[in-house]
Amino acid sequence: MRGRLHHVVLDCADPDELAGFYSALLGLPVTYRSPDWVVVAENEHSSGLAFQPVAHYLPPVWPEGVPGQQLHLDVMVADPEAADAWVIDLGARRLPGGDHVYADPAGHPFCLVRKPDWAPGLDG
Is 92 exposed, middle or buried (CB count within 10 Å of its CB: 0-12, 13-18, 19+)? Predict the structure, then answer.
């Protein structure tokens, strides 16, 4: 027996807003929406990111603090320097302590990383 990753779930105050951010950032559609669950994935039959509301949501603190970062996402881009203005325009904000480290609109940290040679090309 073995498991398979279904979704990475992010707590937030507004799932629709955060799903819209990641939909634009990753170039993926919103594939499911209900009052308490929104999913961004390649299609409705694939795994992706899910967003759920938390009544008294507290954003993570980067790089450490209370609450700590808990997790962060690495997002591949062709050129992290060139992508800086783009993610800021989407609603991200820069975080201290590292190159290309940002917080999404709900405060979750993520990093822009240069696409490695082994990874498939990026469209757009």
Answer: buried
